[in-house]
Write a structure and sequence with these properties.
Length: 383
């Protein structure tokens, strides 16, 4: 028998970030010491109080199904956190999901039909185009690479890209893979275009609390945007809970109802005891977040200085824990050679819509960052 596969699944490629991670794991399993600067997760443990809250929830028997949209206590806590961001969502506007990636998937599927135009601001996270394609969307991409990855100078190009045929714009600030935090002026430009052309915006704010110069602005809080924005966030980055798989989206009630149907028929609900631990995370980990962000800022500065010592000048990211470096035109071959020869894992920029660059994560110790740059320079990859 020859198995036939759907067109939608054949539209997408495997995740490039996961592929690099798999390669690093294979080399390490064979005894090679790999400096992994490709990882998209904090290298800090989940705060102890959150772990203890999960244990208590298990001991208290919170191991069954919850309501599909999430336990009331967590939706209340999320709504409270969003109000702290300046967003007046009620708990009924919130759906708890197994990871922010699942939240994005459900929302894109609920909003995009075959042939609908989806606009991406590049560089953009690897799963955005895949999710747009899986929904049958037609992708239009706007690059910020020539502007040091800032959106404001690229607003003219964005204006040219968005039309009355545009259904959805995906926005990610702080940005993966660049660490850029978009200015209020840039977001105001997006706001004006979204209103003029009746476009829905998904604002992926998973790195919102990992910033180095004040909290990033949420576009849903701007005039005219609350009812046309879906805010997505989660617990993986700020709370160092990647493996716990918990996220959420918040939006208008009609969106919650429609995306909620997909949610109920796919994952049913997020894990019960993890949701209880997440309440603790929201309410009692601000100090741990501040400590982690301070450490990331120091590593960012170290990495920028080390690269500059080898003649590589890069703009300082204002958020997240990544930066982009210029490499060979064939960045995929560059990344493959680097991991094979220098045993340093990075991610090619073409995976994010930014050919000629590579993403480096500084979610690693200062010692490993120093060693990674040393290996890159020693093997001629920073020339």
């Amino acid at each position: 028998m020859t198995m036939q596969f759907s067109d939608r699944v054949q539209r997408v490629e495997p995740s490039a970030t996961l592929a690099i991670g798999n390669k690093a794991n294979e080399l390490e399993a064979s005894g090679v010491d790999v400096v992994d600067l490709s990882v998209g997760e904090p290298d800090f443990p989940t705060p102890d109080n959150v772990v203890e809250a999960a244990k208590r929830a298990l001991d208290d028997g919170h191991t069954g199904y919850t309501s599909s949209n999430g336990i009331p206590a967590l939706r209340e806590a999320v709504a409270g956190r969003l109000r702290w961001y300046g967003l007046e969502y009620d708990p009924d506007n919130v759906v708890i999901t197994p990871g922010a990636k699942q939240a994005l998937f459900e929302v894109v599927q609920a909003l995009v039909d075959d042939g609908d135009e989806v606009v991406l601001i590049d560089p953009s996270w690897v799963s955005y185009p895949a999710q747009g394609k899986l929904a049958g969307g037609s992708l239009t991409r706007v690059s910020t690479a020539e502007y040091d990855f800032q959106l404001e100078p690229a607003l003219d190009q964005l204006n040219d890209a968005i039309s009355d045929e545009t259904r959805l714009l995906l926005l990610n600030s702080p940005n993966n893979p660049t660490g850029a935090v978009y200015s209020d002026a840039a977001l105001e430009g997006v706001r004006d275009l979204a209103i003029d052309h009746d476009v829905t915006v998904i604002s992926d704010e998973i790195y919102k609390e990992i910033t180095y110069d004040g909290l990033a602005t949420s576009i849903a809080g701007m005039d005219g945007m609350f009812d046309r924005t879906v805010t997505v966030n989660g617990f993986s980055k700020a709370y160092s809970m990647t493996g716990w798989r918990l996220g959420y989206f918040a939006g208008p009630e009609d969106l919650v109802a429609q995306a909620g149907k997909l949610h109920s028929h796919s994952v049913s609900c997020a894990t019960n005891f993890v949701q209880h631990a997440a309440v603790e995370a929201i309410e009692n980990t601000d100090a741990a977040i501040e400590e982690m962000v301070e450490a990331f800022e120091g590593r960012r500065d170290l990495l920028i200085d080390l690269l500059a010592d080898h003649g590589v000048e890069v703009p300082a990211p204002d958020g997240a824990f990544y930066l982009m470096i210029p490499v060979d035109e064939d960045d995929s071959a560059w990344a493959e050679n680097v991991i094979e020869e220098a045993h340093v894992a990075t991610v090619p920029g073409s995976a994010f819509g930014a050919p000629g660059y590579a993403r480096i994560s500084y979610a690693a110790s200062t010692e490993r960052i120093r060693e990674g740059v040393r290996r890159l320079a020693e093997n001629g990859y920073l020339e």
